[in-house]
Amino acid sequence: LVIVVSVILPTIWRYLQTLDAPPYFLGLGLSAFSFSGLLSGPLFGLISDKTRTTKKIILFANCFEIVGNFMYFMGYSKWLLLSSRLVAGIGTGAGSSIFSFLTRNTVPEDRSTVFAAVMACRQAGLLIGPAFNIFLRLCDFQLGPFIVNKFTAPGIFMCGLWLLLQLVVLLMYWDFPEPASRGSREDKQQQEDGEDEEDENDEVRPLVHPHELTGSYGTVSIPPPRIPTVANGNLPRRSPSPPEQSHSKFLREEVVVLLTAQFITLFNQTALETMVTPLTQKFFNFGELENSIMYCVCGVEVIAGFVFVRWLSRRVAERVVLAIGLILCNISCVWCLIFLANPQGALAEFIIGVFLQVLGLPFVAVAQVSLFSKITAEKTQGFSQGVRRSIGGLATILGPLWAGGLTSNLYVMLGVMMALLALLTVSVCYLLFDFMFLGVVDSLSIWLLFL
């Protein structure tokens, strides 16, 4: 999914200019992709919770990506370009089903490292996507009635990649059977085998079942622990879930803070992405090649950050990872507000600002998504992850819209980014001190959040 966004970032601004689009269309084009994903995410997640399937959802969602990218390739007008982003964005809703699948098949202790690895793979798309423009910018030929150039080539290229992914998912991916249902079938078979053996030999008794009284023949005086078992003696790898709650669970303090973290970090990230291309064109005269190289370097930095977070999350609590990320993000926003709000053409100051902004993203991203998966019920992970991704989608809509209209007034744009980040930092600190001093630790969700 990241490749879809990143492969067009170096060229979409000039593409819109060739279609006589006003500057605010840059924000609209980037936001449209997130808007349709905002709506489709909870829906796909809800379907995933009901059906416990992921493969069919991915195959269905990919169809929208294929059609949307082909529309981007056609590019007859600015409105068709905007519509292409809307259609392609529907496919991003499959992400909620994927994160739900990961949550159901990982234990809480390993979840941070698993999510860090998955996010690193996603961010690899941020690295690879712009790199494709190094050769896509050389395209200049006719394909039937369509013109293939450096602006339209990313559309047909991504259309081909999504078709390839369809084949890979169709032929090489299968959903895991549900551990609970598989275990219950094996337990039932074991019980039937035990009854057959009891008929043959009265001295042989079946395994003790939970409804039997303690102290009977074949049992010990200690009640059996409430642990699910399967026939081969191995426990299914299922993560504990908090008690089932109503939709008001999203209004709990710790959930609100994590959703706020999702919103603010993505708002700032997409605002920066929108601002960077016009800024480099205006002050440094960057073209497609220079922008592609810049995005590649940022991708390398982000991947290295996720690898480090994967290592760090095994040694420190997730709240520490979140705190480190917030500190880095605050430093980067202060730097950008001081040096980039009124740039004087100093490339070194620009590079440092972008470096600091990108550096804090892996820490906040991994910590908040891992903690969120632990404080929401496993049974409804698809819908919960859909809500989380919708909050992120709202941020990726508002971020480009905000930055796209304020590229000439960076003090206001960066000031709002700094204010939002300060609000998030204060909220996290308040929540930490609130539970520390008031001793509100009897809730399972809070216990998971602050251990």
TrEMBL record:
Domain Major facilitator superfamily (MFS) profile: 1-451
TM region(s), chain numbering: 24-45, 57-76, 82-102, 114-135, 155-176, 255-272, 292-313, 320-341, 347-372, 393-414, 420-450
Annotated GO MF terms: transmembrane transporter activity
Gene Ontology CC: membrane
Keywords assigned by UniProt, alphabetized: Membrane, Transmembrane, Transmembrane helix
Location in the cell: Membrane
Top-level lineage group: Eukaryota
Alphabetical list of InterPro entries matching this protein: MFS, MFS_dom, MFS_Domain-Containing_Protein, MFS_trans_sf, Tet-R_TetA/multi-R_MdtG-like
Membrane topology: Multi-pass membrane protein
Compositional bias per record (Acidic residues), positions renumbered to this chain: 192-202
Biased amino acid composition, Basic and acidic residues: 203-212
Region (Disordered): 180-247
Positions in coiled-coil regions: none
Name assigned to this protein: Major facilitator superfamily (MFS) profile domain-containing protein
